[in-house]
């Protein structure tokens, strides 16, 4: 596998893009045998470092009359395109510079007249075999004579990739089917240069849920986007492999990279467009989160909490043990790691006034027994010595709740939902026996955003109620 940086489009090529590309591939767990960062026998691996090679082969094509000099200006070419469109013809180059005598063309070039190099497309259909699409044929009339070297001296994409693929001994060219129309130009170049044509495989276009071509309006469309969302690399690789491909049998969906290497074949790639299903990706991500080690997920999760100012970069042993409990509480309910801080908001955020006015809580707060439950629970927590010290245990909390149950006659939702609103701000949420120790321990940690103990939460709620 070769990593080649195709950077002849100067306006769109920056070092930061190359760095991001390499980082993304490495994050995915992909590697390569040759490339700009590892070297190899067929370098250099940046096209911008190979310009003399491209000029040499362009001159060869010119000397063999397989290419010719084109002196048409951009304004003239634009007029041709507009005229063809108006006459409902294909807006392709007329080929008028084909007729210029080569000796005259060379004189004009030597005198300094700007000119581009164009390939002479042969007077016969261009045929090639595609592993995905089967036999493909293009009429030479629709291909036109493509520019291979601009008047600025910069080569074009369809030319340089042929030179590179041939000299680097590339056997398989695998790319999106939006490049299918480029292939006849490239096949013509291989034939003009007398080089064997590689195998082509054009993969199906990826569509959004609306069956339109995947774009930024559908959400994340770069590797970095998914990484920032907290999608694990193995989940993304697994999902991407299933877009337009299915293993023998077609029922299995979980694959490691090693298993994909063993199972994958281009012959099982379908030419039909594939729909990118975010929910399917999230389902796979949940699987890989569960399969990962606790230490790895906690390490990755820390960055999401730090980014929101919930945790500092200082990481003490006490904080580590506490954060492990937080993860155990919220991790089962997420399908990507960016959701963790939101799920943990019950720990870091407490707004008694908002809880009292939330429409979701109105029904519970209006129940006949709610006032009595809130009053007795508040009194017992505020009077409890362990709660005042932030050392309330899950067992002690359960004992207090049972006492409130006995004194008020409330049970089930009528008992637990009002208490949950006091502590979490919502009538639904995590189990108390797991949440209470987290709140109590967290209240003693030096965190950027202080975690309120159960006592502090009850006190704030009583104040907001005016009682």
Report the strand count. 9
Query: Reading side by side through the largest sheet, how are the strands ordered?
Result: 1-2-5
Average residue-wise pLDDT: 93
**Class per helix and strand makeup:** mainly alpha
List keywords for this structure.
single chain; mainly alpha; Glutamyl-tRNA Synthetase, domain 2; three-stranded antiparallel β-sheet; 7% strand
What does this molecule look like?
There is one protein chain. The protein is built from 23 helices and nine strands. It starts with 14 loop residues before the first helix and ends with a helix. It is elongated and about 105 Å long. It has 467 residues and is mostly helical. A hairpin with a 3-residue loop joins β3 and β4. The model has no long low-confidence stretch (mean pLDDT 93). The protein has a three-stranded antiparallel sheet. Strands 3-4 form a two-stranded antiparallel ribbon. The chain has a two-stranded parallel sheet with strand order 6-7. 48% of the residues lie in helices and 7% in strands. α9 packs across α11. The protein folds into three domains: 154 residues, HUPs (Rossmann fold, 3-Layer(aba) Sandwich); 72 residues, Glutamyl-tRNA Synthetase, domain 2, CATH 1.10.1160; 174 residues, no CATH class.
Quick recap of the structure?
The chain has 467 residues and is mainly alpha-helical. Helices cover 48% and strands 7% of the residues.
């Amino acid at each position: 596998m070769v990593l080649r940086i195709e950077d002849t489009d100067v306006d769109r090529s920056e070092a930061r893009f190359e760095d991001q590309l390499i980082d993304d591939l490495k994050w995915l767990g992909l590697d390569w045998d040759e490339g700009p960062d590892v070297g190899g026998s067929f370098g250099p691996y940046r096209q911008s470092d190979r310009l003399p090679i491209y000029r040499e082969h362009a001159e060869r094509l010119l000397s063999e009359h397989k290419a010719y000099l084109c002196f048409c200006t951009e304004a003239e070419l634009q007029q041709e395109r507009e005229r063809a469109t108006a006459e409902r013809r294909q807006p392709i180059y007329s080929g008028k510079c084909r007729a210029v005598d080569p000796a005259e063309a060379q004189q004009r070039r030597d005198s300094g007249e700007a000119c581009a190099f164009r390939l002479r497309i042969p007077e016969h259909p261009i045929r090639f075999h595609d592993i995905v699409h089967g036999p493909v044929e293009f009429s030479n009339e629709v291909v036109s004579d493509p520019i291979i070297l601009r008047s600025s001296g910069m080569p074009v994409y369809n030319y340089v990739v042929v030179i590179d693929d041939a000299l680097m001994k590339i056997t398989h060219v695998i790319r999106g089917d939006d490049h299918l129309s480029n292939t006849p130009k490239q096949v013509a170049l291989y034939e003009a240069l007398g080089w064997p044509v590689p195998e082509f495989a054009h993969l199906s276009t990826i569509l959004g849920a609306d069956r339109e071509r995947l774009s930024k309006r559908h959400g994340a469309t770069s590797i970095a986007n998914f990484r920032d969302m907290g999608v694990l690399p193995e989940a993304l690789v697994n999902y991407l492999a299933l877009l337009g491909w299915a293993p023998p049998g077609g029922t299995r969906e979980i694959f490691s990279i090693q298993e994909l290497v063993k199972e994958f074949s281009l012959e099982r790639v379908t030419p039909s467009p594939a729909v990118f299903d975010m929910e399917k990706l999230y389902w796979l991500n949940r699987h890989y989160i569960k399969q990962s080690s606790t230490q790895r997920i906690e390490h990755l999760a820390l960055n999401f909490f730090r980014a929101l100012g919930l945790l500092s970069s200082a990481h003490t042993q006490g904080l580590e043990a506490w954060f492990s409990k937080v993860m155990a509480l919220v991790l089962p309910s997420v399908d990507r790691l960016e959701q963790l801080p939101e799920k943990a908001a019950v720990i870091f955020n407490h707004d008694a006034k908002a809880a009292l006015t939330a429409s979701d809580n109105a029904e519970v707060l209006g129940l006949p027994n709610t006032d009595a439950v809130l009053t007795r629970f508040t009194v017992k927590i505020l009077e409890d010595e362990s709660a005042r010290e932030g050392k309330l245990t899950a067992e002690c909390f359960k004992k207090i709740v049972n006492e409130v149950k006995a004194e008020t006659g409330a049970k089930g939702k009528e008992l637990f939902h009002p208490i949950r609103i006091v502590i979490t701000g919502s009538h639904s949420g995590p189990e108390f026996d797991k949440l209470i120790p987290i709140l109590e321990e967290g209240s003693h940690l030096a965190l950027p955003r202080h975690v309120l103990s159960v006592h502090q939460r009850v006190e704030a709620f009583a104040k907001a109620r005016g009682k």
